[in-house]
């Protein structure tokens, strides 16, 4: 039944694309896909009718739903039947889609559903690599398929700061634009993060700002993002500018849209915590590169007196034979950033081992078996002014730790990831 529904929903989505001929922007990469998708959609909405999936719909079921503008009915056969029988009353000018790659052949199949005019590649790290025989080059080749399938009159938008991604230019029939901070067509610069220095965090406040300049062949501007930490949302903004210029938008038209950007739920999102603490909620998922970025974000804060930088890190999944080495490497990094390190899960024991190897005081390293245990412990551990990074793979459910520590737990449904359906069980 599942296979039949998948086939039927894909056929309906493909028929809609062939009938209405929307312009398709597709984003792939190991990290940053969703924030880049949302940034591009926000920019293009200033002039076009845009459809973008509200959920993280990026696989064989999710992309057809995103194309059709529907939400998954889960296991409800009746719900799927309603989607299949529903007539399309309106179709947008532009589809902004996220293409995931869990297994070989995924990207090619998604390109057949909706051939992209514009393909955006963020960065490539060992995520889902166990499904590629723990061979990073096979994963790289899978991501490159998006660029190989672009329309000749389209555009390849590549993260020029990632050497592997920059190399995709040779595979493109379409023109290529790079974005990033190192000799790129859409060039970011003068990056500066400003954090609060009073370390008293109350709901509704601006806790940090990211300032950066951007220059391209068509425009230049200074951009300020509120409550944005790390370069992740900056890279998303640069990619959005590259796509926007392809669609004929000017810098003046795009700047207001960029100013509205904010981190997505569970992705380096700043939340006020209990006892006047501050949470860096990065609980959506975890890969080595994104954990390294999150630790750099944590290091940007310099707590005063006895206030601490606390890293609560869960297992990183689907790393195959690279798992042990990658967890150890994160521990080595965390030892240089965190005053207190809380490792959650069996694989995260490797993080603890790496931190001890780096010379971190053993009494400053805690090991917990689950997110529930970590949340209960941290509820008594946290002090006023502490900065708490919370991150781990989806399977670790690290949002449970966030919920235990957030100042407004009644708003969990609107502020945290996975606050519906089976995730609440």
Compact summary:
The protein is α/β, with parallel strands linked by helices. Helices cover 36% and strands 19% of the residues.
Describe the model:
The protein is 36% helix and 19% strand. The chain contains 15 helices and 15 strands. A 9-stranded mixed sheet has the order 2-3-1-4-5-6-7-8-9, sandwiched between helices. Strands 10-11-15-12-13-14 form a 6-stranded mixed sheet, with helices on both faces. Helix 7 links the parallel strand 5 (155-159) and strand 6 (176-180). Helix 1 (2-20) runs parallel beside helix 3 and helix 10 packs parallel to helix 11. The relative contact order is 0.11. The model has no long low-confidence stretch (mean pLDDT 93).
The CATH homologous superfamily name of the largest domain equals: Mur-like, catalytic domain
The number of strands is 15
The end-to-end distance, rounded to whole angstroms, is: 25 Å
Radius of gyration, rounded? 21 Å
Reported by name, the CATH topology of the largest domain is: UDP-N-acetylmuramoyl-L-alanine:D-glutamate ligase
Query: What do the pLDDT scores average to?
Result: 93
- Output the CATH class name of the largest domain: Alpha Beta
- The amount of helix comes to 25-40%
Structural class: alpha/beta
Provide the β-strand percentage band: 15-25%
Number of DSSP helices?
15
Shape: globular
In N-to-C order, the SSE pattern is HEHEHHEHEHEHEEEEHHEEHEHEHEHEHH
Query: What's the CATH architecture name of the largest domain?
Result: 3-Layer(aba) Sandwich
Sheet with the most strands, sense and barrel status: 9 strands, mixed
């Amino acid at each position: 039944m599942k296979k039949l529904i998948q086939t039927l929903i894909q056929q309906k989505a493909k028929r809609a694309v062939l009938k209405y001929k929307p312009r398709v922007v597709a984003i792939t990469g190991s990290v940053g896909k969703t924030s880049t998708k949302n940034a591009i959609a926000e920019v293009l909405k200033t002039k076009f009718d845009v459809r973008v999936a509200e959920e993280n719909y990026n696989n064989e079921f999710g992309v057809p739903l995103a194309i059709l503008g529907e939400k998954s009915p889960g296991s409800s056969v009746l719900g799927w039947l309603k989607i299949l029988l529903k007539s399309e009353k309106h179709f947008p000018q532009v589809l902004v889609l996220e293409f995931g790659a869990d297994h070989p052949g995924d990207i090619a199949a998604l390109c057949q559903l909706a051939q992209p005019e514009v393909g955006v590649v963020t960065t490539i790290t060992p995520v889902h690599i166990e499904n590629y025989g723990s061979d990073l080059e096979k994963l790289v080749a899978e991501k490159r398929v998006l660029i190989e399938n672009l329309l000749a009159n389209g555009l390849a938008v590549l993260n020029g700061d990632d050497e592997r991604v920059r190399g995709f230019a040779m595979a493109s029939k379409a023109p290529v634009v790079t974005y990033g901070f190192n000799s790129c067509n859409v060039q970011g610069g003068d990056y500066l993060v400003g954090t609060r220095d009073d370390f008293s965090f109350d709901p509704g406040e601006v806790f940090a700002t990211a300032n950066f300049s951007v220059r391209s062949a068509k425009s230049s501007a200074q951009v300020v993002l509120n409550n944005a930490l790390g370069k992740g949302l900056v890279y998303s903004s640069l990619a959005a500018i590259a796509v926007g210029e392809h669609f004929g938008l000017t810098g003046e038209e795009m700047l207001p849209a960029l100013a509205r950007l904010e981190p997505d739920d569970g992705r380096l999102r700043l939340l006020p915590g209990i006892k006047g603490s501050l949470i860096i909620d990065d609980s959506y998922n975890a890969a080595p590169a994104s954990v390294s970025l999150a630790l750099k974000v944590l290091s940007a804060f310099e707590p005063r007196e006895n206030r601490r930088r606390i890293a609560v890190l869960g297992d990183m999944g689907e790393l195959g034979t690279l798992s042990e080495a990658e967890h150890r490497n994160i521990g080595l990094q965390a030892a240089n950033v965190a005053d207190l390190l809380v490792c959650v899960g069996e694989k995260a024991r490797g993080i603890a081992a790496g931190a001890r190897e780096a010379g971190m005081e053993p009494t400053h390293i805690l090991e917990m078996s689950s997110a529930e245990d970590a949340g209960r412990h941290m509820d008594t551990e946290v002090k006023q002014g502490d900065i708490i990074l919370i991150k781990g793979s989806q399977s670790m459910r690290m949002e449970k730790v966030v919920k235990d520590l957030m100042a407004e737990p009644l708003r969990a449904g609107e502020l945290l990831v996975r606050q519906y359906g089976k995730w609440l069980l």
